[in-house]
Amino acid sequence: MNLPDEAATLAFGAGLAALVRLGDVVTLSGDLGAGKTTLARGLLAALGLEGEAPSPTFAIVQTYAPPETRLPVAHVDLYRIEDAGEAEELGLDELSADHVLLVEWPERLGADWWRDALKLRIEAVPEGGRRLTADVPPSWEARWSPR
């Protein structure tokens, strides 16, 4: 899927908000500046968050809960994680039980953490804009349709 600009990335995130359920994990991969946080902001805004969601780069985990958002969401940025063992301290297993997890830089913890996740990858393309690709797990197949 092509995302020609920031507005398209926000709109894709907003569309994704209509599909997510408690317990879902959505991973967001891509280089610095690819649009991972922008996509997450679109999703959070569509779930009711007023104002712009901060990047969780320094907090690592930023949570949102009703009435701030329609569903509890944990926006996670693993960029500063250097060892997968550090993830235990973040409580991601507990959060995944009763939140939607949006995880930037999932590769920092390895593939085993994200077996059932909807895996999204955003890449800049030479002609401008971004290309989004998805690895859709069985739990998403009935909800997912190419956009």
From TrEMBL:
Pfam families: TsaE (PF02367)
First-listed, main subcellular location of the protein, grouped into a coarse class: cytoplasm
UniProt keyword Magnesium, yes or no: yes
Listed GO CC annotations: cytoplasm
Keyword field: ATP-binding, Cytoplasm, Magnesium, Metal-binding, Nucleotide-binding, tRNA processing
GO function terms (MF aspect): ATP binding; metal ion binding
Keyword Metal-binding: yes
Gene Ontology biological-process annotations: tRNA threonylcarbamoyladenosine modification
InterPro entries xref list: P-loop_NTPase (IPR027417), T6A_TsaE (IPR003442)
Localisation: Cytoplasm
NCBIfam families cross-referenced by the UniProt entry: T6A_YjeE
Record PANTHER family: TRNA THREONYLCARBAMOYLADENOSINE BIOSYNTHESIS PROTEIN TSAE (PTHR33540)
Similarity remark: Belongs to the TsaE family.
Protein name as catalogued: tRNA threonylcarbamoyladenosine biosynthesis protein TsaE
Taxon lineage: Bacteria, Pseudomonadati, Pseudomonadota, Alphaproteobacteria, Sphingomonadales
